[in-house]
Amino acid sequence: xISGKGPGVNSRRNKVIEVGVVSIFLAVLIVMAWADIxxxxxxxxxxxxxxxxxxxxxxxNSINLWTxxxxxNAEGMAAEVAVLNNARxxxxxxxxxxxxxASPEMSNLREILAPEIKAxxx
Length: 122
Prior knowledge:
The protein is an all-alpha fold. The protein folds into two domains: 1-66; 80-122. The protein has helices at residues 7-78, 81-92, 97-102, 104-121.
């Protein structure tokens, strides 16, 4: 007690310092954890974006392939002589829905194209 301070002052000051040091340590730990979580979140978002881009490109390529295939099928069917002859005959008829539907040329086209259209549907 030479300094005039009681014996509890030093121990109280030590406890305040200990609490301060622990608080600073916890604050640093929380900031580091928060930064790591943000980094992990960003990495997860980037992986998801890459996966979505891959799915998008794959879907785009699949649709292009499917469309090209269907276009080749349609071109092949349109090049058949029977299809061309019946289509020309339909174009010569009056532009009435009832006339076109009832025409033998439309019936012929349906009969000629039915197997191809059925094959495309499966």
